[in-house]
Amino acid sequence: MPINFPSALPAAKFLQQEKIFIMDEERSMSQNIRPLNILIFNLMPEKEKTELQLLRLLGNTPLQVNITFLDTATHVSKTASKNHLESFYDTFEHIKDKRYDGLIVTGAPIELFDFHEVDFWVEMVEIMEWTKTHVTSVLNICWGAQAALYHHYGIGKYTLPEKCSGIFDHIVHDSTINLTRGFNDVFTAPHSRNTSVSTEAILAHPDLELVSESPEAGAFIIVSKDGKQIMVTGHLEYDADTLATEYQRDLARGLDVQIPSHYFPNDNPNEQPINRWRSHTHLLFSNWLNYYVYQETPYEWQ
User: Fold this and answer.
1) Which of this chain's residues are annotated to bind substrate (predicted)?
2) 164 is catalytic
3) Hey, where are the domains in the chain?
4) Cα(283)–Cα(182) distance, rounded to whole angstroms?
5) Backbone angles phi, psi at 120, to 5 degrees
6) Is 279 annotated as a binding-site member?
7) Rounded distance, CA 75 to CA 85, Å?
8) Residue 96's pLDDT is what?
9) What is the tens place of the pLDDT at every residue in 232-245?
10) Is residue 249 annotated as involved in ligand binding?
11) Active site residue 123
12) Which is higher by pLDDT, 269 or 12?
């Protein structure tokens, strides 16, 4: 949250140079506060696990957050119960006239399909276009990040020689970027995907900034210059055992998959993995809610 103190204090100029979030007295007296309205477009097959992961993170801030879950109308889930979806999820037709302070678009296990082959792609495009006027900031995760990069910025994805799965080190290029405020210069994060995006294309795009990348896993956090679109190509929201569950699932399907990199102790799948990314996950979500949603969204949508 912002620091409010007399603007003439000598420390103020140094804090401003470091881009520490400060607020002058006039603005602090005029602030109106209300709950944030966050929409979650949950495309993951195991809906309830993803719900728990995201709600745990959104609930770890001083801000009151109202949650709405969104499901596709043009795709029928094979793994989520119809009763669960009907009880807790809306479709776009029911929410399209509302405005939201933030939207989270999750990943989906469909990355090997061309975007236009996805059965709900037309609906996805409609929603992405709708966010331009109805959402303050969008946090796109994994496949959601690739979809946003493709639709908004014309940056496609490509298939990797083998699945990128594991826990990788990431470098923060600019520690003054609000989204990574408080991050270590190097931090770990999970990835689980068969496709990737071009780092060179991101760096060359005038509307994007590459905030963080991994020497092994590639581009990780990308932010649009206006803060409207945030793309995270990995899965900071994952629990400690999520990659292990995915690995065992792929083995059971008879797939030729490698052990997730830097994940199991001693690279032994029989040993219990530990969560080495939790603190940075909480930082990313709280920074997004504060700097890109709460501080930017209008008190009353026009």
Assistant:
1) 163, 192, 249
2) no
3) 1-31, 32-65+95-294
4) 7
5) -110, 20
6) no
7) 12
8) 96
9) 999 999 999 999 99
10) yes
11) no
12) 269
